[in-house]
Write the structure tokens for this entry.
Amino acid sequence: AQSVTQLDSQVPVFEEAPVELRCNYSSSVSVYLFWYVQYPNQGLQLLLKYLSGSTLVKGINGFEAEFNKSQTSFHLRKPSVHISDTAEYFCAVRVVQGAQKLVFGQGTRLTINP
Amino acid sequence: DAGVTQSPTHLIKTRGQQVTLRCSPKSGHDTVSWYQQALGQGPQFIFQYYEEEERQRGNFPDRFSGHQFPNYSSELNVNALLLGDSALYLCASSLRGDGYNSPLHFGNGTRLTVT
């Protein structure tokens, strides 16, 4: 079975500051990794995904994430945040072979203060 | 190009009742998955439908059932509602032919409140 742990339930930062949202996963088989964002009263929107190749993945809205296989981590980063980045962020995994289901972490609420 | 649409957006039911939630996938998609997102939690996989059959199921009781129609739209039915069924129910669609890394497109969800 797979599991995902998001190490911070809430992250407050000031506007234009850098941010890192941490994600660790556990799996006995190879997985794909994803970050989704959820704005209030909306569904989930894909930010970025790691399937294979370069461990540094760039996504939408200036976000990027780095896959670290030895540490089983997939941390999300942004060098300078904006008020509009205030949202809930979810890390998720899916096994490479077989099931299409996503296994999500608990989420990290990112709050941007002016 | 319409994305994933879900109806209704909000619903209030009483314990013991039954509820049906509906989902229309993104145009061109043929696979529908349902997720339950309790307040303050990440989404949890309920089941997935492809070619009108349930292909995979998460750890949910038989009170949760579904259906997929020939036009790829889907319904989620929950019987004998419990207070703990209160959650945001998300529908996600994808195209099976895109393979295992096919991205999921999510709807905005149906907020179910059980009183």
In short: The CA atoms of residues 30 and 97 of chain A lie 8 Å apart. Chain A touches chain B through 26 residues (CB under 8 Å). The longest strand of chain A covers residues 87-95. The radius of gyration of chain A is 14 Å.
